[in-house]
């Protein structure tokens, strides 16, 4: 299986990216049939943004630690931390999609000027980076998981991984800013 996947990393990246982005846009645009999704109690739905803020903070920590580990030559620690980051991202995404599918996106409760000149630009960049990161993350994860450690250096993992990690980190940080603006500041 690993050898077959190794030969098809770009195709698998494309397939996983299309499916993931279809789920994201389907949830945000209300295309997921809500009557087929089990509904959690309101308290659970209300807790999801706060849980996701904690998950995002943990992901920021694991991404930074993963980058530091690879710079120190600690390949197995890097792999563990980046897989943990990917797992945290998956938890975040499932929780986010569940809440958005059931309740829609959150309305900004603050002043119009902050909405227009702070919140929307931050949200826009966060969303753009999140969308761009999805195929990059699948690509570097598949490269890293389908090759022996010695063969990874000969792949694009290192070059693309640097870009992916940086964009992913910025996206998570901006997501925290969005959370703060929606649920703490206003």
Q: What does this protein structure show overall?
A:
By secondary structure, this protein is mainly alpha-helical. It has one domain (2-185). Helix content is 82%, strand content 0%. Keywords: Membrane, Transmembrane, Transmembrane helix.
List keywords for this structure.
82% helix, Cyt_c_oxidase_su3_a-hlx, mainly alpha, DUF420, 186 residues, transmembrane helix
Helix content: over 70%
Overall form = globular
**Based on DSSP secondary structure assignment, what is the total number of beta strands?**
0
The parts where pLDDT drops under 50 for at least 5 residues are none
Instruction: Classify the beta-strand content into a percent band.
Output: under 5%
A few lines on this structure:
This protein has 7 helices and no strands. It has helices at 2-7, 9-28, 42-71, 75-103, 112-146, 149-152, 157-185. The mean pLDDT is 94.
């Amino acid at each position: 299986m690993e050898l077959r996947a190794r030969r098809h990393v770009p195709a698998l990246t494309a397939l996983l990216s299309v499916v993931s982005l279809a789920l994201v846009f389907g949830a945000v645009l209300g295309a997921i049939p809500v009557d087929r999704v089990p509904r959690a109690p309101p308290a659970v739905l209300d807790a999801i943004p706060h849980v996701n803020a904690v998950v995002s903070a943990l992901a920021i920590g694991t991404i930074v630690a993963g980058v530091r580990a690879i710079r120190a030559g600690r390949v197995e620690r890097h792999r563990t931390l980046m897989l943990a980051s990917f797992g945290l991202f998956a938890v975040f995404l499932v929780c986010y999609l569940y809440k958005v599918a059931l309740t829609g996106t959150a309305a900004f409760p603050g002043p119009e000027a902050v909405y227009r000149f702070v919140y929307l630009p931050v949200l826009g960049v966060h969303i753009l980076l999140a969308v761009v990161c999805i195929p990059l993350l699948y690509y570097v994860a598949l490269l890293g998981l389908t090759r022996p450690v010695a063969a990874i250096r000969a792949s694009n993992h290192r070059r693309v991984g640097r870009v992916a990690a940086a964009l992913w980190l910025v996206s998570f940080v901006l997501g925290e800013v969005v959370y703060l603006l929606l649920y703490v500041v206003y």
